[in-house]
Fold this protein.
Amino acid sequence: MDTGTIILGIILFAIATMVIYSWGLMRQKKKPADLMNLLFSKGMAKVKKELKKRGSVTAGDVEQICANLEAKIPFSKDRAVVKNKKDFAQKLLEYMLKTGQIEQEGNRYKACHK
């Protein structure tokens, strides 16, 4: 083998290692935010399903729906679990109101029909 080919191979291997390592670091940094997004999306899906069944829900109903909610990223041992269901339910309802997924009528929440 030519010396230039060997040096080029070593450089390409070093670049590939650097790219894979950087990608892993970026994923590790974003993991808490990804877990919270996954937890919120699971909570929204459960609330929407309950809204289809009942037509409307209260904040207490949302607390019960989200009581044992858990999110896990595939191929990772890290998990996000709802510890304070009242706080989580309030933030979830605020987000769903802000994004126009639900509307508030008194102390009840209904699905928005667009």
Q: What stands out?
A: The CA atoms of residues 9 and 112 lie 58 Å apart. Strands lie at 56-58, 70-72, 79-81, 102-105, 108-111.
